[in-house]
Amino acid sequence: MGFHHLFGRHHHHHGCDGREAWAREAMGIGRGRGRRGFGDDEGEGGWGGMGGRFRGGRVFGHGDLKLILLALIAEQPRHGYELIRTIEEMFDGAYAPSPGAVYPTLTLLEELGHASVQSDDGKKLYTITEAGKAFLAENKEAVDAVMSRMEQTARMFARAAAPMALREAMHNLKRALFMHGGPWNTEEVKRIVDIIKRAADEIIKGKKDA
DNA sequence: CGACCCTCAACAATTTATAT
DNA sequence: ATATAAATTGTTGAGGGTCG
């Protein structure tokens, strides 16, 4: 977030402008990839785990969006705009995926063979394919998890935005962890994990109850 | 010598505008 | 109204320089 020095004291004048013109000048659509090899793209069985990869995107990851889209078209074949509308409904109007995000994903899906597109008088009707079904079946659990998170996120959005104090607290925790310095014994790790787990439990409990 | 803060670089998604 | 393309924004990861 941009609040980096918001809490800080003195900073420069420009500040907020980091990457005004990095490197996408000479080509039309030169996004592509290829930097530190993060290995973010899903992969076949790939979700990996659960917890946390908040890489460059926004809320979930483009993999999640892809999964959701695939699941949606698996339920019923639809075209792009309808898909967006459906998702918006799903999120109770709190979140609507932008066309610029969903269309490339759809195209990618089609290129991957998970979905097939049928031109329908200017509209594109996306349908699930066998490969897509297989993919869905393979990642069914992941899809379910994503869906659940989607609902939770929707609720969260509906309720209130994230307090910036939270960020400060996180920072504090991180610093405490980093400053620990000493040897990380199993006991220590377990202790901290327990603390965090308890905190998480309490948070969830409070949120659910409220 | 150690720790902290700031800046650089890049990817992934959102937003916006434009074309069909 | 829908689809496509371009520009914008926000986030994340890594590194370097400076203060204590």
TrEMBL record:
Coiled coil, from the record: none
UniProt-listed Pfam families: PadR
InterPro entries: Tscrpt_reg_PadR_N, WH-like_DNA-bd_sf, WH_DNA-bd_sf
Domain of life: Bacteria
Domain Transcription regulator PadR N-terminal, first and last residues per copy: 69-138
Membrane-crossing residue ranges in chain numbering: none
Stated name of the protein: Transcriptional regulator
Organism annotation: Dyella japonica A8
Upper taxonomic lineage: Bacteria, Pseudomonadati, Pseudomonadota, Gammaproteobacteria, Lysobacterales
